[in-house]
Amino acid sequence: MAEKISTVEFKEGFKDGIPIGLGYFAVSFALGIAMKNAGLTALQGFFMSLFNLASAGEYAGTQVILSNGTYLQMAMMTLVANARYLLMSCSLSQHIHPSTSTAHRLAIGYGVTDEIFGIEINRPLYTSPYYGYGAIAASALPWCIGTSFGILMGNVLPARIVSALSVALYGMFLAIIIPPARKDMAVMTVVVAGFLSSWILEITPWFSSISSGNRIIILTVIIASIAAIVKPVKEEQA
Fold first, then answer.
1. pLDDT at 1 over 60
2. Which of 6, 75, 94, 111 has its CA 20 to 30 A from that of 81?
3. What's the mean pLDDT in 99-110?
């Protein structure tokens, strides 16, 4: 019975992960072109995407390669760029059943991206690790293949097409956050506050000098803390 349930949950995750995978393929294609300029081969780009699974982190790493930076600079850049995933993982850990093993938790942690986190955190009750595996299976491979394709294509495609492809992921992310925001005014308020505060910090002289990754962390902690205090989730909804 348990095996049947896990299979069903994997299929659900795989189905929900297909649109994410399509968006990942488009964006990773553009990332692959940047890797091509850094001198990476298609195989190297594939494994870089497989081991990182993070657009901002991979792009930051690519820029370090282009500038002939050190390994320490590479580590610091990717840490800052991917630091928001620490917060996402902490939040997601509260939606995993307490009996879930450490091995399952680590495996799920590999696939914590903005979009996969979005569909997992909106699951009712506890998130099954098998649902996460399905979502990862449907999205990680297109991300890696798209990177390789981008490297192989190089700069063949016009810049406008590459720019258009990079917008696809943002539209998909909006599709994840808008439905729950329409149903819950508290979620809507948090989303709007996030957009406005991010824009304000972007144009404020001192805060604009802070990296985008650190700004996201600061805003996430502040806005999430205020939301948790003003409108905490009831125990039966957790």
1. no
2. 94
3. 90
Dihedral Cα 102, 238, 224, 183, nearest 10 deg: 130
Q: What is the pTM (predicted TM-score) of this model?
A: 0.68
Mean pLDDT of the chain: 81
Nearest to 144 by CA among 59, 57, 19, 46: 46
Q: What is the DSSP letter of 54?
A: -
CB-based burial, 134-164: b 16+ in 10 Å, e otherwise: bbbebbbbbbbbbbbbbbeeeeeeeeeebee
The answer to whether the beta carbons of residues 83 and 214 sit under 8 Å apart is yes
Beta pairing partners, 127 = 96
Contact 55, 78 (CB under 8 A): no
Q: Shortest CA distance to 231 belongs to which of 200, 185, 197? A: 185
Distance (Å, rounded) from C-alpha 30 to C-alpha 43?
A: 16
C-alpha span between 207 and 67 (Å, rounded) = 25
CA–CA dist 85, 14 (Å, integer): 21
Bridge partners (DSSP) of residue 96 are 127
Q: How far apart are CA 128 and CA 184, in angstroms?
A: 24
Q: Are 73 and 64 in contact (CB under 8 A)?
A: yes
How do residues 185-230 score in pLDDT, each as one tens digit? 888 888 888 888 888 888 888 777 776 656 776 777 788 788 878 8
